[in-house]
Specification:
Elements (H helix, E strand, L loop, with lengths): L1 E8 L5 E8 L6 E5 L2 E6 L6 E7 L2 E11 L2 E8 L6 H50 E4 L3 H10 L1 E12 L2 E9 L5 E9 L17 E6 L7 E8 L1 H18 L7 H13 L4 H5 L13 H9 L1 H11 L5
Antiparallel strand pairs: 1-2, 2-3, 3-4, 5-6, 6-7, 8-13, 9-10, 9-12, 10-11, 12-13
Helix pairs in contact: 3-4, 4-7
């Protein structure tokens, strides 16, 4: 006699034991659930399926005849047939699918918003960087890509003119095709014109400009790429500022320390010498504190002491 059993756990944590006895010779079959007989069948010698309810779930036990008196047995919960429990289950599944769809749509919306926000923030950061380092003309994001791929370089020179209560700043450059391109902007006549690189703009200063050969009016002047003569002007301004702040120093000392700053620290640190008497409130980047940090650096101070001690001789 074949004896088979299953343990079924319902959705509420209930535990149910289902089993059957199937006679080898007679084929008589007894089906029981939780020690209660629920069905008896006689001479079961072919495949059959028996249905019964456990609580509100429709369950099925299948007897499968494989031939030559061999049988296999299977227990399943039928979740497709129309029963009150399955209707509730389908309603729950529809609600779950609706919630999942809302969740996925919301998640996609959040991700899309984050991606778009990051792209906007990245573009804004790039635009802020360009605005803080360059002078641009007709520079859209698309034109910026074109400049990077197809742009040519030239040198743009600046000219400062004085008018009542303001100054006009003109600049111009010559393209490889000998076209003259120019532009201008106005500033109030209230003191030094401080460029994004931290230095005052002087008449005749020149900087690298990148332009599109086919449309040279689309260009970008980079204040962080000064021409050699502009750097020489920064060096002279640093010498004069050092001399004015330390008149007691030997005659050649001011030029010596300015040259060491240029050689050892780069042209941007010359601004520390130029604005060495400025309070930090007026010039947060280059001021008395940044100058003192520069000249007190051990390596820099040692080089100055070694090379400039006899600069006046």
């Amino acid at each position: 006699m074949a004896q088979v059993g299953w343990v079924y756990l319902d959705d509420f944590g209930g535990r149910h034991r289902i089993g059957l006895y199937h006679g080898d010779r007679t084929g008589h079959l007894l089906l029981h659930c939780n020690s209660r007989i629920i069905q008896v069948d006689f001479s079961v010698k072919e495949s059959r399926t028996y249905s019964f309810f456990v609580e509100d779930e429709l369950c099925e036990v299948s007897v499968m005849h494989e031939g030559k008196g061999v049988f296999f047995y299977d227990f399943q919960v039928n979740k497709k047939v129309d029963t009150p429990r399955n209707r509730l289950r389908k309603a729950d599944e529809r609600r779950t699918r609706t919630y999942m769809a809302i969740l996925i749509v919301g998640l996609l919306a959040v991700i899309s918003g984050l991606v778009l926000g990051l792209r906007w923030w990245g573009q804004r950061q790039k635009e802020d960087h360009l605005a803080g380092t360059s002078l641009t003309s007709r520079l859209t994001p698309e034109n910026e890509k074109r400049l990077g791929a197809d742009g040519r370089t030239a040198v743009a020179q600046f000219v400062v003119t004085y008018e009542p209560d303001q100054r006009q700043v003109f600049y111009g450059f010559i393209t490889a095709d000998s076209n003259r391109i120019s532009g201008r902007f106005s500033v109030r006549d209230t003191g030094l014109i401080i460029l994004p690189n931290g230095f005052p703009l002087r008449d005749g200063d020149a900087f690298s400009v990148r332009y599109l050969p086919a449309e040279p009016n689309i260009h970008r002047v980079d204040f962080y790429e000064p021409a050699d003569r502009t750097i020489a002007g920064y060096l002279e301004q640093a010498r004069l500022a050092q001399l004015a702040a330390h008149p007691e120093a030997p005659p050649g000392y001011s030029l010596c320390i300015a040259r060491i700053a240029l050689r050892e620290k780069g042209w941007q640190r010359l601004a520390d010498l130029i604005f060495q008497t400025a309070p930090s409130a007026n010039n947060p980047s280059n001021n008395r504190e940044s100058y003192l940090r520069l000249v007190r650096e051990p390596g820099f101070a040692e080089t100055v002491e070694r090379e400039c001690w006899d600069a006046g001789n």
